[in-house]
Amino acid sequence: MASGWHLVAFPLILPWREEFWTLPLYFPDLKVGVIPGWPPQLPYRGMPLPPEAEPHPTELKHYKPGDLRQWQAFRDFQQEQGEEGDLLREIRHYGEDAAPEAGLAADVWSLAWQLEKMQADQDVQMLLVDKGQDWLKDILRPEPWEETSSFGVVPGVGEMVDPELAKLRYQLWLRVMAPQLEEPWVPLLLGRTSRSLFLTLKGWPQWTGLVKAQVPLPGLQSGSEWLKVVGAAGAPAWQPQFQSLLAAVLAAAVDKGDLEEAAQKLRQFMEDEVVSSWPFPAVRNWDLEIWAPDHSPPEEGPILCWAGAGSGILPG
Hints:
Strand content: 5-15%
Radius of gyration: 21 Å
Number of domains: 1
Largest sheet: 5 strands, mixed
Number of helices: 10
Helix content: 25-40%
Low-confidence stretches: 97-104, 132-136, 138-159, 311-316
Shape: globular
Order of helices and strands: EHHHHHHEHEHHHEE
């Protein structure tokens, strides 16, 4: 808990990435959903993947190899259910009285979980692609290498997440993580496509003027590095002050205060207290972005974005 703020990881299913060793240094009370592959020694406890996240054989019998895609499953559901196949409405009102048909809401719930798992599986595969690109970059280092675009330096992008699928994933996350959403809460975007997904939710072109600040956080990539930083106490001594300063940044985002001034105080603290005492000769930074709200539903509060996880990468 960052001095009163409850941080909740997005998306719902979050495959492991090596840079996540850094998270408990700054967010020890982060609430997570399904975390496949995460090391058990980290102070996070995820939930098990429910059976409905796995497609049943009867649901796949009419597909040929190569046909099964998130888009196709989503479109097929809409076509088969007609007016009663409003997927977003069913997810939003899941568990409430007067379901249109017995079993329809359960089918919707199952499909939503399956779509989420398919996205997580795709993220795992793309992580291997990222590593391959890094390997090639090292080999081709003497040659000119064009930097990839990112949200921070370009006014727009040529491709965004499908708005309906973005809303579906967001509604599924809200419903499953509801017990964790104690006010005040803020999402921490950790998924590969979370940036573009949330920017899609904010709408076009409002997000192009989104106010944001960035704070570099010294990071880790292994369990041995993590143990060296946390020490016998299990947490670095500077952690409480970091959380207090981060809370001030979030408050500035909510109250339309000077976000950049609050972020600068946090950056200065990181430089004076953390970087100066970093136990490794090289400091590897991960960028934390703080997005100020634009008061356009469904997002009206601040958002934290872990820029290292898929920064500048859009889904196909």
